[in-house]
Amino acid sequence: DTAVSQTPKYLVTQMGNDKSIKCEQNLGHDTMYWYKQDSKKFLKIMFSYNNKELIINETVPNRFSPKSPDKAHLNLHINSLELGDSAVYFCASSQSESTDTQYFGPGTRLTVL
Amino acid sequence: DQQVKQNSPSLSVQEGRISILNCDYTNSMFDYFLWYKKYPAEGPTFLISISSIKDKNEDGRFTVFLNKSAKHLSLHIVPSQPGDSAVYFCAASFDQTGANNLFFGTGTRLTVIP
């Protein structure tokens, strides 16, 4: 039973397209995150939601729009995809925003051509 | 089905002493392992890695040990400093090319007491 799942796992698309990545957690956690891994070295936090409310919104282009229909889901929609958006995107969840333990999803590898 | 596990959510160590953070994995196909350090409201930052052909990799105060037969790795920090206080995540991959995604553990909060 997967704790944090992401779909799709791989996404290849053309520049200029709009795409969504979905994330679901079945742990009953209150807080969910999106990270972008540009390289092996660093995962940059993009957004954090607590009980469907946005609590962290780092400096990302407004082409990226998170949506949390309920606290078990945090989807990432990206408009007008650019080459530089190619990366692995990780979703994660934690019990609360003050909890250190985070469960990561398997990642979505986005390739923009 | 957590394939990478960090069973200790927290660890407290006196400044100057050794910190040992542990990580276990279940998939014997993992070939490359990494440790990340995370501060609040930031993303994890890469710290040190090890390939499965080695059993030890050292970088300054940080040493990672890999025991493939036990499917266990550990991160040693000697000597521990207050600035090391953070959450540490271990991660595993099927190779180090970057073509395969990472599988993360759930993190261990290290507190170094001055």
Question: How are the secondary structure elements laid out?
Answer:
The complex is a heterodimer of chains A (113) and B (114).
Chain A: E1 4-7, E2 10-13, E3 19-25, E4 31-39, E5 42-50, E6 53-57, E7 64-70, E8 73-78, E9 87-94, E10 103-104, E11 108-112
Parallel strand pairs in A: 2-11
Antiparallel strand pairs in A: 1-3, 3-8, 4-5, 4-9, 5-6, 7-8, 9-10, 9-11
Chain B: E1 4-5, E2 10-14, E3 19-25, E4 32-38, E5 45-51, E6 56-59, E7 62-67, E8 72-77, E9 86-93, E10 103-104, E11 108-113
Parallel strand pairs in B: 2-11
Antiparallel strand pairs in B: 1-3, 3-8, 4-5, 4-9, 6-7, 7-8, 9-10, 9-11
Name the shape of chain B in a single word.
globular
Multimer state: heterodimer
Assign an overall shape of chain A. globular
What structural class should be given to the helix and strand makeup of chain A?
mainly beta
Number of strands of chain B: 11
- The value of Rg of chain A in angstroms is 13 Å
Question: How many distinct helices of chain B?
Answer: 0
N-C termini distance of chain A: 34 Å
| Uncertain ranges of chain B | none
Mean pLDDT of chain A: 91
**SSE run of chain B:** EEEEEEEEEEE
Report the β-strand fraction of chain A as a percent range. over 45%
Provide the gyration radius of chain B in Å.
Answer: 13 Å
Mean pLDDT of chain B: 94
The SSE string of chain A, one letter per element, is EEEEEEEEEEE
Strand content of chain B: over 45%
- How many runs of DSSP E, i.e. beta strands of chain A? 11
Which sheet architecture does the biggest sheet of chain B show?
6 strands, mixed
